Amino acid sequence: MISYISTRGGGSPQSFTDVLLKGLAPDGGLYIPDEWPQLSTEDLRGLSGVPYADVAYKVIAPFVGSDIETPVLKRILSEVYQGGFSHAAVAPLVQIAPNVWMMELFHGPTLAFKDYALQLLGRLFDHVLEQRNERVTIVGATSGDTGSAAIEACKGCKNIDIFILHPEGCTSEVQRRQMTTIDAPNVHNIALKGNFDDCQNMVKSMFGDETFRNDINMSAVNSINWARIMAQIVYYVTAAVALGSPSRKVSFAVPTGNFGNVYAAYAARQMGLPMKRLVIGSNRNDILTRFFETGSMKTGSVEPSLSPSMDIQISSNFERYLCDLLGRDTKNIALLMKSLKEKGAFTLNTDVMQRARDEFDAFRCTDEQTKGLMKACYAETGYILDPHTAVGLNAGMQVREDPTIPLVALGCAHPSKFPDAVEAAIGVRPELPPHLADLYERTEHLTSLPNDLKKVQDFIKQNIK
């Protein structure tokens, strides 16, 4: 049975439900499985034509183990993926060029790929907390999409208080309103005066404050929570199988900020899913592309871009990949993370970097390139890309050396979430789907707070139930 360990080596192995509720490890590390379950060739062939919820069970069950009974897990997965998404295929593939496919991950309630994990996470939290007769306080940071998806998933959960920090003035208006127009007694939006990295660092600081963490029974829904990664593995499997896996390899292009989504693709490959190329797309905040070019992870200033969800300089989930890359040398990981926090940088040697480059390609995309690709795609196909999706597609098209290999670009958000960027690129303003048509008329609920840890902690303590 799989157990979970910290990337930094602290503490004892944990069960799935313990990791679900804790989120971040007490030593500041991220939880990873102590081994990768395997999907055999026969397993993958057997998933052809299978409903999404059933593929999800096949992928997820080994990670959950005996912590949740099989009938209960199957029921939860069925409720999430058969009832909560607007497309019958859940994560459909749309062909946009010869052997180039868009995997549309915006058919959930908040129109972003985060729904695919967070709708499940909310149900899992509610079930486990009910079984344990416990209550948790979820504290999360968002650069745009995680917050709305988390709030949507948790707004009706009677055992959860949720506080989401977003960088004030740094999300699209649609992204902000999707969070702040939810009127529920357990939902609290904090507009932090700072950037996303400030929000993320504050959440990590709160996790590192053991007294505060225990006082509020703190948990996380950011992609630092292992269950988020686990759920995102599923759509890589469904896409690859639909395009002929395991008989042929597939390449994936992923727009990447916090490294969670592309790490889920890496996890799928570790489980046995055949992949040709795994391509990272960065915007002007290109810390990941610079890392793969130079071998140095070095933070810089965050610059606003057309793809705000990727305006990040600290990619939290990269620590999970780094742990595998360095042979699970947790002491070394702890030292590297300390260096990144204190000095803003660390560097890996040539041999290690060669292994990393064998597993990932990485390319940056300027705002002008983003707009150019959005315009070209619309002119040639009529398909409207959101700016994040365009960044990923741009990266994927850089490695099209073998046209017989299918390329799947991840459509991470509905274009209506970024109407200004889309209109600037193609001259057409995308409309919100019917269930969000009145979003601009809804009343907002948020509290603006300074980038001050104590003031944010005090606010949370004053507002938990």
Number of strands: 15
Beta-strand percentage? 15-25%
For this structure, the quaternary state is single chain
**Major sheet attributes:** 6 strands, mixed
The radius of gyration over CA amounts to 20 Å
| Helix-strand makeup class | alpha/beta
Number of helices: 19
Shape verdict? globular
Low-confidence residue ranges: none
- Gross CATH architecture of the domain at 93-110 and 228-426: 3-Layer(aba) Sandwich
Helix content: 40-55%
Q: Give the CA-CA distance, first to last residue.
A: 36 Å
Explained architecture:
The chain has 465 residues and is α/β, with parallel strands linked by helices. It has a domain at 93-110 and 228-426: Rossmann fold, CATH 3.40.50. It is built from 19 helices and 15 strands. It has helices at 16-22, 41-46, 52-64, 70-83, 115-132, 145-154, 173-180, 196-208, 210-216, 226-242, 260-270, 287-294, 318-325, 330-343, 350-359, 367-381, 387-397, 419-426, 453-463; strands at 4-6, 31-33, 93-97, 100-104, 136-141, 160-167, 187-192, 218-219, 250-255, 275-282, 296-298, 345-347, 361-364, 407-411, 447-449. Strands 3-4-14-9-10-13 form a 6-stranded mixed β-sheet. A 5-stranded parallel β-sheet has the order 8-5-6-7-15, sandwiched between helices. Helix 3 runs antiparallel to helix 4 (70-83), helix 5 (115-132) packs parallel to helix 6 and helix 6 (145-154) runs parallel beside helix 7. It is globular and about 55 Å long. The mean pLDDT is 94.
Give the SSE layout.
Blueprint (H helix, E strand, L loop, with lengths): L3 E3 L9 H7 L8 E3 L7 H6 L5 H13 L5 H14 L9 E5 L2 E5 L10 H18 L3 E6 L3 H10 L5 E8 L5 H8 L6 E6 L3 H13 L1 H7 L1 E2 L6 H17 L7 E6 L4 H11 L4 E8 L4 H8 L1 E3 L19 H8 L4 H14 L1 E3 L2 H10 L1 E4 L2 H15 L5 H11 L9 E5 L7 H8 L20 E3 L3 H11 L2
Parallel strand pairs: 4-14, 5-6, 5-8, 6-7, 7-15, 9-10, 9-14, 10-13
Antiparallel strand pairs: 1-2, 3-4, 11-12
Helix pairs in contact: 3-4, 3-10, 4-5, 5-6, 5-10, 6-7, 10-11, 16-17, 16-18
